Amino acid sequence: MKATNVVLALLCAMYFITYIDRVNVGTAASGIQHDLHLSNTELGLVFSAFAYPYLLFQIGGGWIADRFGARRTLFWGGLIWAAATVGTGLVGGLGSLFLFRFLLGFGEGATFPTATRAMQSWVPKPKRGYAQGLTHAFSRLGTAVTPPVIALLMVLFSWRLSFVIVGAVSFAWVLVWFWYFRDDPKEHPSITSEELHSLPPRPVLPSEKPKVPWGALIRRIWPVTVTYFCYGWGLWLYLNWIPLFFKNNYHMNLQHSALFSSSVFFAGVVGDTLGGMISDGLLRATGNVRLARIGVIVVGFLGALVSLVPIFFVHSTDTVALCLAGAFFFGELVIGPIWSVPMDIAPKYSGTAAGLMNSGSAFAAIVSPLTAGFVIDVTGNWYLPFLMTIAVLLLGAGCAFLMRPEQPFDEPLLSAAAVKPAAAE
Predict the structure, then answer these.
(1) Distance (Å, whole) CA 162 – CA 149
(2) Distance in angstroms (rounded) separating the CA atoms of residues 19 and 17
(3) 292 and 280 in contact (C-beta within 8 Å)?
(4) Taking every pair of C-alpha atoms in the chain, what is the biggest distance, in angstroms?
């Protein structure tokens, strides 16, 4: 197998495992809530604990990856998130549960920006949308298999041991990654000349430690960040509350709620893969980066919005599950193109730019589950959080038009722009 394919497979495995580690708490929530005597608001606080350091390390983690390389960044981050997952199975109350979920976010905070940094060197430019869509499809595959897998482990053992088992899998991935991956493809013993020729030149070596033009980069990325916040609002509502939505709103047992949740999440696997493929196909056919990225993103937002509307009028379990799956499918079309945008705009600082973008989803991971838990506790209505999501999706579709992926963040152009005012004086 080609070294480039192995690296992509390792990144797919990482996305798969990290999502199991972050969404397993949603399936285990019924057991956790019962054993630790938590309200829905307290459970929402637990769901959000992951996101506080996750938000912080989107930007910091991307910068670390640009500065020190993806190999070491994912190694140390992986050790932390694996240990935190195991520790979650040992908690004794709300405080310790919050702490280990917080540590999980600390360890996983840099993972996706760092993966983007790795793809910058290991994935040919025409395949970036596909690579981003494929890796995120594996994250949704992890999301989809988590409910039945965790439910089975809870039935066979306990919710506590389920965290220990998946944490051990994380440790195994970390060791394989550090053994196989190299920051510079040229240094890999299995790379072929044909593969090297297809890869983009590395703009900056880690040893050069580039200084990030923070102000200019933030000004270019903020529309992407806001758009990704709108996507993340719905995502984190799904990941944290869908299992309990089916269990409590439709009075299902753990196994049935897990199966319904899994069926919804599997739609995201297809959406992630297709979104990247469609975006890359449009780019090859038209050469229009803006159409290839923003066109797919807007269709994803509007499709998700339309798919959610029927759940307020038809309450058949099967119909609601189908609508939720459709909304998740369309929402996941956004992933491939939007994760390509930081690489389109700022290839030299792709890790940092991706971190700036993903901070939007990380912030949504704080406020979305907290808001949902509070609204459910106050009103007893499990549908209101989805009504709020419709409004946020509409905002995201509008914000997408503010992104400019067709205009690269080019430092010579920045320098020239800085010279013009001086010349005018």
Answers:
(1) 9
(2) 5
(3) yes
(4) 76
What is d(CA 330, CA 291) in angstroms, rounded to the nearest whole number? 17
Neighbours of 410 (CB within 10 A): 13
| Amino acid type, 133 | G
pLDDT in tens, 290-347: 899 999 999 999 999 999 999 999 888 889 999 999 999 999 999 889 988 888 888 7
The DSSP symbol for 202 reads P
Nearest to 181 by CA among 84, 65, 64: 65
Model pTM score: 0.74
In the chain the first and final C-alpha atoms are separated, in Å, by 60
The pLDDT score that the predictor gives to residue 203 is 55
Taken in order of first residue, the domains within the chain and their CATH numbers are 3-183+213-411 (1.20.1250.20)
Q: Hey, what amino acid is at 238? A: Y
Mean of the per-residue pLDDT values of the chain? 84
Tokens of 178: 């550090």
Distance, CA of 386 to CA of 389 (rounded, Å): 5
Which own/partner contact pairs does 121-127 have at CB distance under 8 Å and 24+ positions apart? 121/183, 121/184, 121/185, 121/199, 121/200, 121/202, 122/4, 122/7, 122/8, 122/185, 122/199, 123/4, 123/8, 123/199, 124/198, 124/199, 124/200, 125/200, 125/343, 126/280, 126/283, 126/284, 127/280
Neighbouring C-beta atoms of residue 201, cutoff 10 Å: 7
**What span, in angstroms and rounded, lies between the C-alpha atoms of 90 and 189?**
41
Which of 90-94, 123-127, 306-310, 401-405 has maximum average pLDDT?
306-310
If you write DSSP's letter for every residue of 108-137 in order, what string do you get?
A: HTTHHHHHHHHHHHHS-GGGHHHHHHHHHH
**58: pLDDT confidence band, cut at 50, 70 and 90?**
low
Tell me: the pLDDT tens digits for 114-132?
A: 887 788 787 777 777 678 7
